[in-house]
């Protein structure tokens, strides 16, 4: 009986994919629920203007990252693997992270500057000066780095690797990217373009995972994009504003082009950025004939329970 039960739960690659996904979601939900219960009693509420405070933002990211780290560690232990084996392994971690940071900031800067030049975004003069500029830059930098770590490891870490054994890499990528886009619907200020762009960002991040076998480039890009959008340019990020911003961005005119209350990533022009990113990644990694670690048929052996 025990051997039969073990065969039902475990396969040749560890916990069978279906059970692994269910256990991961259950552990994550349990952890996040318990932490949220405590946080509601300890964490400061948002400001009257609706902006997110440094303390609330940092605390929320710590809580979310801890929950996904616990879920990943538990499942990795059950499968006798390192928790870093789900996209955080590799020798070039720092280089890929820094490359992602650079590309992320350049990408959001190009989008903001094009919107500003076209008259769909107005930037006010810097509102921070002296030491406060660096303090807020550092704190929000750390907070958004945790955002990148959390969102990438949540949807493109254990879940992506495990679902790949079940339905293949790209079906998993499409499914989890659609979920990533749907998560942004929790914001009442989000637009249809913003939801679609969020899902497509997920696909682009999966493209980097496909080529490198690592999440570090995506983590760096994700963190720098959010940092640039929220702190540096002071724009809304999926409708959310933060306190202590350098510049302050105001959408002007047609919301389909300016992004409206959703922020620059709610603009139709973000699809140009996404297309350029995808083509550049394909040209760079494809030109070097990089073989995806996910292309190994043995790794993609079906595991459908």
UniProtKB/TrEMBL annotation:
Lineage top rank: taxon: Bacteria
Record Pfam families: Rce1-like
Query: What InterPro entries does the entry give?
Result: Rce1/LyrA-like_dom (IPR003675)
Molecular function via GO? endopeptidase activity
Q: Give UniProt keywords alphabetically.
A: Hydrolase, Membrane, Protease, Transmembrane, Transmembrane helix
* Protein's UniProt name: CAAX protease
Does this entry carry the keyword Secreted? Answer: no
Q: Where are the transmembrane segments?
A: 21-39, 51-76, 97-121, 167-186, 192-211, 266-285
Question: What biological-process terms (Gene Ontology) are attached?
Answer: CAAX-box protein maturation; proteolysis
Give a yes or no for keyword Transmembrane helix in this entry: yes
- Report domain CAAX prenyl protease 2/Lysostaphin resistance protein A-like positions: 138-227
